[in-house]
Amino acid sequence: MTKIIGLTGGIGSGKTTIAKYFLSLGIPIYIADDEARTVMQSEVLIKALKKTFGEHIFENNTLNRQLLADIVFNDPDKLKLLNAIVHPAVREHFEDWLLLHLSQPYIIYEAAILFESGNYKNCDQIICVTAPLESRIQRVIDRDDSDRELVLKRINSQWTDEMRVAKSDFVIENVDLESAMLKVEEIHKILLIKQNSN
Known about the structure:
Mean pLDDT: 92
Strand order of the largest sheet: 2-5-1-6-7
Low-confidence stretches: none
Structural class: alpha/beta
CATH architecture: 3-Layer(aba) Sandwich
Shape: globular
């Protein structure tokens, strides 16, 4: 049976880079944020988002993601509403995707809010990616052309590294890429051995 390995970490921790390294080792990866973007283009979700957050979050029927982010990251209740719309749809999409990869020893399910969403309960084991706070902030500023205050709001809306690490089976400290990749290879070998011994 294919194992589901959750991969998580705070915004800017570099978890997508780590996920892509697993992909280079031949392990299928499901990046929940990317898939959520696709799922959010479905008619059902567009209707639900318009009803909940207003028509103005769409321009020419295209979701203004930045505007939606500004709304939900300034209001925890609105963030809960968004998650209640998106997460069940992503979960269903993931289950369909998983059916295509049942011959694999394991797959990686990458999600920033793996614990907050409750999706960690569907994982056999969990890998947490950590990085120093200032590195995370700078990565997000560079990546999203965002400002420090907004990045900190997003960080503060998520679990802390300490909370995630306490519930994880493996931890990858993503300070320098070379050490992080060596840790990925080590975890990969452990997971293959475990799967082969089952």
